[in-house]
Amino acid sequence: MKLRSFTLGIVILVVIFGSVFLADALGYWNTENLAQPVKFESGEYAGEFNPADIRGSYSFGDIENTFHIDASILAQAFEVAESQANAFQVKSLETIYESLAASGVEIGTNSVKYFVSLYTGLPFESTETIYLPTPAVEILIAKGKVSTEAAASLQEITVDIADFTNTSSNVTGAIPKGTETTTGFVIKGSTTFREILDTGISQKEIESVTGKALPNPLIVIKTYCTERQLDFETVKISLQALVDSK
Amino acid sequence: MTNVATNPPSRKPKKLRIRSWVQGFFLILVLAISLKKYLTELGINLSFLPDASLHAICPFGGVVSLYQFFTVGTFVQKIHDSAFVLMLAAFALALLVGPAICGWVCPFGTVQELIGTLGRKLHGKHYNNFIPSKVDKVLRYLRYVVLATVVYQTAVTGKLIFQGVDPYYALFNLWSGELAPAALILLGIIAVTSLFVERPWCKYACPYGAVLGLTNFIRIFKIRRNEQTCIQCGACNRACPMNITVSDTKTVNNHQCISCLKCTSEQNCPIAKTVELQVWRGEKS
């Protein structure tokens, strides 16, 4: 059997594009990172997306796709211009509300996780205090997502941002995707143990933070923590302190 | 063993047009995908193209991700399912017809060929014959060193370390701010070298070419030469961009063959049905 050049050309095109179409039909043709949190593996919420795994790189649009909360509602809740709602990255909140950090208040990725948890009724636990802006709490109450008692307790963590006029200008100057916020090494949701080792932190030091033997260093720390029910924020803060001390 | 040289050519060779069309198509496709983001910012809408980075459509990304995929279950940073799909398609194709991805699809190979067209005009028959064969023979194994280094380093770090020196990535990101100086320098070296040597990157340094090249030993369709009709004119040897001596072999098993078919009776061999792409029947070369 022989192949002529014309036939070979056709074979090449068929194999390549056939593979692409087949993979697409089977749901394996992904050219971008899937912005999807892990799902609860067991219990009452098995199969549901876990708000604890929402990452700073996710956009409000990604959250809409996974948790079915309109991006426009998230934009209202966190005082983001609605025109930018879909593409707005969660981590950009930390830039917008940067000035609040001086008073020990942080509105960022954790706030979004908490809001999503309250809005959807999915469980989310954190060891640190999480703050929500006033509009977020108002939306939760108005839509009946929280009980009266819960609404009262939310007042303690509500941040009045009515006087905070820097918002809209900071939105446009929010962190572009894939950039660092500081010049030093910052642990993010996509950081692996290998990257921590590369900063000069020893295996023993990492193990002292996680309390477990170091897994394959190529594993993403956040994924590891979520799978082993460790609080990522706590691990992150401890590891970041080690990195900063080097 | 071979026919005498008095056996006249039975027909004029035809130009191999289909390969040029396929190469041009993939060059434009990759260029458009890599330019999409930039063009969108300029108001030019290419919505029919996928939102993909070069990494997402590079099958070598799948190769370097294999270790992490099987040990951790994830891809190397910046690599996605699509790279894996294309890697599998390229392997399937290579097992069937050899590294046709190199000879027909790879846009970087196409660009080197285009520069080589100018080199051929400048140097005539000396083009692609500048490097002494002894040196050339050793250098041909350099790409396996590159392959081993890249695969090992990627496995250890979990990062696309090759991006920092990859001239292919640099070429299709010339308009972006993501250029690594080393990759840019290497791109310049390859561009200049292409004026003297055909496909220098493919021959001496391409790690993906090294992987696919190994399928030349086991591929189903191979380049076969009919000793009975061959007139030993050497046209096949001269046509081969990878400097393979086709006229010395019955079946081309060389790890550098890129299945371009330039040596065949369809293109440069002057005798019909003498050098062809045929099912391999296990004959030795």
Task: Provide a descriptive summary of the structure in words.
- The complex is a heterodimer of chains A (246) and B (285).
- By secondary structure, chain A is mainly alpha-helical.
- Chain A folds into 3 domains: 1-31; 51-172, no CATH class; 193-245, no CATH class.
- Chain A has 12 helices and 3 strands, in the order E-H-H-H-H-H-E-H-H-E-H-H-H-H-H.
- Chain A has helices at residues 5-26, 60-67, 71-77, 92-96, 109-120, 134-142, 148-154, 167-172, 193-198, 203-210, 221-227, 232-245, and strands at 2-3, 132-133, 158-159.
- A two-stranded parallel sheet of chain A has the order 2-3.
- The longest helix of chain A has 22 residues, at 5-26.
- Chain B is mostly helical and 285 residues long.
- Chain B has a domain at 17-215.
- In chain B, 48% of the residues lie in helices and 4% in strands.
- Chain B is built from 12 helices and 2 strands; from the N terminus they run αααααααααααβαβ.
- Chain B has helices at 17-41, 59-71, 81-97, 100-105, 107-123, 133-139, 142-157, 167-171, 181-193, 200-204, 207-213, 235-239; strands spanning 221-225, 275-279.
- A two-stranded antiparallel sheet of chain B has the order 1-2.
- The longest helix of chain B has 25 residues, at 17-41.
- Chain B is globular.
- The model of chain B is unreliable at 1-8 (pLDDT under 50).
- The interface between A and B is large, with 33 and 45 residues.
Strand order in the sheet with the most strands of chain A? 2-3
The major pleated sheet of chain B works out as: 2 strands, antiparallel
Strand residue content of chain A: under 5%
How much β-strand is present in the residues of chain B?
A: under 5%
Greatest interface and its participating residue counts? A-B, 33 and 45 residues
SSE pattern of chain B: HHHHHHHHHHHEHE
Write the element-wise H/E pattern of chain A from the N-terminal end onward.
EHHHHHEHHEHHHHH
What's the number of domains of chain A? 3
- The number of helical segments of chain B is 12
Helix content of chain B: 40-55%
Q: Considering DSSP H and I runs of 4 or more, what fraction of the residues of chain A is helical?
A: 40-55%
Beta strand count of chain B: 2
Terminal Cα separation of chain A, in Å?
66 Å
Briefly note the structural class of the backbone of chain A: mainly alpha
What is the subunit organization of this protein? heterodimer
Tally of strands of chain A: 3
Low-confidence stretches of chain B: 1-8
